[in-house]
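Memo to structure team: turn this sequence into structure tokens by end of day. - J.P.
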Amino acid sequence: MSLRNRRWIDPDLKTPGPNQAAGKHVEEEVWSCDFCGKAVIELHAVERILGDFGPVAESEKRILISRVWPPQEPRPLSEDAPPKVRNLFVEAGRAESVSAFRLAGVGYRSVVEEICKERGAKGRNLHAMITDLATHNVPDSVIDGFHEARMLGNDSIHDGLEYAPDEVADIAGLIEEAVLVLYTQPAERQRMAGNRLARRTANKAGAATAPSATP
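Reply from structure team:
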């Protein structure tokens, strides 16, 4: 991707160039793919801080607000996951796509809780349920990821803490990896075993009905 244009859109730019004042503003960035040429438009919140010798590039803090074009779709989840798990994940993804990161954090926590229930985990709270997954042959890496999602969701709903976009995206990625391990890979193995059985059965049926060779 290559940056094609950057435009200060809010508030009005008073002192453009290297002498612009410190403060917060919103910029529009236009990127294009170096291979297909398609454009991506994003809005960024920028905080500019004056250094000892005036503004410098390192003093800018940039946060992605939203992607304007193309429209950002909610994260998909494997069809092998249970329907309720998929629906909750899509709802959390919709919140993430419009930068409602606290709401997204709570949503991804609810996905983890639903997976725990679906796997038969027991416990008086989500912490205990996630820990109990170890008795259901769930790998430690998945359990650790679920605890991360639980803590992010708790911070979001109880303390009003808003995590950075990439931190929320990482939690979504941990859930996607867990779904791969718990649902997608077992389902794929089952489908492949079914394909082999069907091929084996068809081959035996063909051999049984084939005319015998005449001497």
